[in-house]
Design brief:
By secondary structure, the chain is α+β, with helices and mostly antiparallel strands. It has helices spanning about 10-25, 30-45, 55-75; strands at about 100-105, 110-115, 115-120, 130-140, 140-145. A 5-stranded mixed barrel has the order 1-2-3-5-4. Helix 1 runs antiparallel to helix 2 (about 30-45) and helix 2 packs across helix 3 (about 55-75).
Amino acid sequence: MTIGGLDPAALWLAAGLVFGIAELLVPGVFLIFLAIAAGVTALTIWTLPDLPIGLQLAEFALWSVACVTIGRRWYRQYPKDNGAPTLNEPALRLRGQIVTVTMPIIGGAGRARLGDGEWPVRGPDAEIGTRLRIAHVDGGVLLVEAIDPTA
């Protein structure tokens, strides 16, 4: 059966493609589920080409509800704000890491090694070799604190 001379499966596939492109242009994490539902409907129409349009629409509606329900459950389990506070400030991801003092911290200022680089640090006075924890990052300066021995 054709609709206006066009293959219904191709129309459903085109609808899925339109929904997918719309999701990319206006991300809202909703149209992608409709795109999936349209794609599944297209696969069904390819296997059952004589399926009436009413059943095609019903199948699309059922798959849409199923995909949105599964998607909502998935997004609740994996919240999108995970790590978002440091997304645009990668230096804040350094919090909690351990540094080793390379230039004594005297009067609250010194230098410490983190990975393969040295950073200016501010924190409690400490001798060379002392290990401290990064509490915060202020611009390019690491704000450090003593490591809690009970932790």
